[in-house]
Each structure stands twice: as C-alpha cells, then as structure tokens.
Amino acid sequence: MQFLYPIGLLALAALMIPLIIHLWNFKESKTLKIGSISLLGASARVSSKSFRITDWLLFILRCLLIILIAFLLAQPYIKKTLNAKNKGGWILVEKSKFPQIFKDNRKTIDSLTKRNYEIHDFNLGFNLLSLKDTIASEREQTVNALKHTALLKELNNLVPAGTSVYLFASQHLNQFGNVLPLTNYKLIWKPVNQADTLSSWITQFAGKKYEANSNPSVVEYKALNSDDAPLISVAIFEEAGSNDSKYIKAAIHAIASFSKRKIQINQPNASFDVGFWLSEKSISQNFKASIKENGSIFKYASGKIVSEKSVINTNSGIVDLTRRIVPNHSFNKIWSDGFGNAILSAENTNGLSILHFYSRLNPQWNELVWNETFVKALMPIIIKDDKFSEFGFENNLSDQRKMPLNQKENIQTNKIEKELKVSTDEPLSTIFWFAAFLIFATERILSFRKKPDYVRS
C-alpha cells in the first residue's frame, strides 16, 4: 500500500485526544439527603479523578476512527500490475486496408475476436475498430503518421505486459526506423499478402536527375542526364597540430563519389562555396572574404567544455557524444544532444550562413567521424539541395524493399527482452470510508448504551 499524500499521516497525532479523554475521567459526587442525618448540615462537595482507562472497547474504536481519518487524508492506493494472462489481446490493422485484410484473413481474425481480442487501427491513437469497418468506403492507400517502429514502441504504454498482439501489416523497409524497439508484449506479425513487384520512379538530387528501380531486395539509381552540375569548391582551415581536416576530406571524397559531383578542396585563388574553420579562434577576414555570397562556414565554437555522456541527433542518425561546448547564443538549432542542447546551430550574417559546432571532429569528443552518419550529415552542408535528407534514403511509397526473412525471425524471438510492467493505481478510499462509517456507528451505539453508575445506600 502506498500514499498519494503521505503528509496526511501527521493527523495520527490526534490519537492523543481519545487517550486524554479516557485517562482524565472526572467523576462528580452526588448529594443524597437522608432523614436521619439531615440535621448534620451540608456536606462538603467532593470530586474524584481517575487516571485509568475505564472502557477499553470505546477507547480502541475511537483510536481506530482517528487512524482511518488520517489514512483517508493521505489517500492510500495500491499499485497493481496489469496481467494479460487468460485475457484477450489486440489485433492491429490499418483501417484503410482492413476490408482487404479481413477478406484474406477472415478465419484467423474471427477466431481471435471469439477469444476477446480487440481490433485497433494501426495508426496514431490506436482507435478501436469493429467488423463494420470491413465494409467502409475508405479504401485509398494512406501512409501512417508514424513508422511501424514508433507505433510498436508507443504500444508499450497501452497494453499490459505479456499481451498477445497480432499485427497485420507489410514489412517494407520504408516503414522501419534505424533501431527496432524492445517491447513488453508478445508480437505476432502477420505479413500482408503482397506480390513481389518491380517499381520505379524519377527523383532529382544536386542538379542531377535519377531513375530509381526498386525490388524486394534493393533500390538502384541510374543517372538520366549527363550534364555536369556546377563545381563545388571547399576551403578548410585548421590550426597547427590539429588533424581534424582528414575526416572532412574523407567525407567530401565519399560525397563526391556518391553524388557524381566534382568537388575541389583548397584550390588556390578560388572563391569557395563552403568553408570549414576548424579552430576556436575568430574567423579571419581573408577566409570569410573567400566564401561566396550565400555560402556557408562550418566553425568550431568556443566556450565552457562539459563532459557528459549523451548523443548527437543529426536528423540523419544518432551517434554517441562524450564532450560538448556550452552554447552562449540562441541560434537556429540544427543538431542537438539527448538533452535538447544545441550541437550545431546556424547564424545568418552578411550573406553567409555560419554553422557553430559545439563539439569537435575528434573521437575523444564523439563518435561522429567513425559513423556512416557523418557523410550523410555533411551532405546538406557540402551540397545545398532541398532533398538532401531523402536521396538514397528515400521514404517512397514505391519502394519495394522488404525485411529479410532471417531478420524477421530475430524480431519474433527477441520481442520480450525488455522487462517492463504496465501498472495502474487502484485507490482504497472506498474501503476506508466504509470501515470508518462502521466504526463510528459502533462507537455511537456503545456510547449511548453505557449506563451511569449511581450511588446506592
């Protein structure tokens, strides 16, 4: 048993009240005149005190009543773990696809509903569905507001631990995030029957047009136009003794190879599209003047160093972080750590975009340079394109790639690794109110039935 307001137990101090009442009994004597001694005159008034408990039952009842009142003020409750054993489970299915899925899996779904399984929309909110929704006219293909992995993680907060959840959904990779969630329920995935098909679409990136061809295993991109996109010039400055520029150069070479763009580094007497100022010192005027209008400069921020374990969220992936610089300005946040602090922020000044990096491109500060996320995170800085976050990593409805069969088995066998318990708080106020009423009624009955002692002679 736990208490919502434990301070209410201070009311137990009121137990002194019945104790004082029962220990401090005042008994006043009664004067009774008798004929044979009436001429002796009035006798002196006598009172008696008794420091002892004369009625143990009344005393105990009154103490219990005060104890119950104190408990009611503290609002007791018990935390109960919800157990899904011997109870129904959930059926998850996208509402827009429910008619066809029910048609293909009617025997299974009917069997589950007879065992008290509830049907829920596999989408944000997990709204309750009924078999009437199988005749709904809403049949157009829609995209979930959240990916499968985010929805499965959210489900941890809604179903009791150990609940069986049948999921009727596709296993296309474009519906999964980078990390599969650990769940406290038993997930039984029923893949939606979809024929393996080939699909293609046209996309553009960094001034080039590509044709994407997708099958259940891979997506391949083929350039459609041979026209060369404009040359990209990059300037890099680092202090003597530093070796961080090698990570930038390696990433630039990877970006050039992937995008088929020509990128030059530190060409003499050139105007640069992007600059990397790998120093805490202020950017020199000559370096700043060498950057083209509307260009950008990536620079190391200076300030107080904080050592703490966290992550860098680059919007392209998450990497470990061990040291950072405390931001001293509130610029537009681009990357952040696990606590929401800025790791990369943008400041627009005099036609330039200054990117303040509150860490270092050094493995002693973070694991960014060792992670494949590094190349993808730098792409929007090197190549300015509105679709930088999609190309090669597109979340396209035509993407036919599916989860490998061996990966599917791993998910099924590892779903209940996380020992989470879904619990609820059950208040006990009703029980205590009922007990207090019974004790109060009993105490009143005993008090009225108690007869006073009379002096007899």
From TrEMBL:
This is Aerotolerance regulator N-terminal domain-containing protein. Pfam families: BatA. PANTHER family: BLL2463 PROTEIN (PTHR37464:SF1). The keyword Membrane applies. The chain crosses the membrane at residues 6-26, 56-78. Keywords: Membrane, Transmembrane, Transmembrane helix. InterPro entries: Aerotolerance_reg_N, Double_TM_dom. Residues 1-76 form the Aerotolerance regulator N-terminal domain. It comes from Pedobacter ginsengiterrae.
